[in-house]
Design brief:
Helix content: 40-55%
Distance between the termini: 70 Å
Largest sheet: 3 strands, antiparallel
Mean pLDDT: 92
Structural class: alpha+beta
Shape: elongated
Amino acid sequence: MAALPALMLAATLAVQLLLVGYSLTIADGAAEAGALAGAAGRDSRAAARDALPRWARGRSRVTAGDGRVRVEIRPPAPLPALSEALGVSSEAWSRTPRGGAG
């Protein structure tokens, strides 16, 4: 029984680290989706936001310009300050093709 609080703390930390890792993974995918959309001449910011799961859209900030897409996500956490401190971001770049098919 004495070890139960320590086990609960360890489990909570492990889950929090998994949430941070998952948030980074989806930020990577969203940034890449935005960059690919920009290379195809579409709205890269909208594409990046659409690539995020619904829960992450309200916890994210997407910026895009000059072929660069940056996605920042605050992972779920028990305290808002902790969520801010553990925020993750990812960037992807692209450039539109020049010339024609060839």
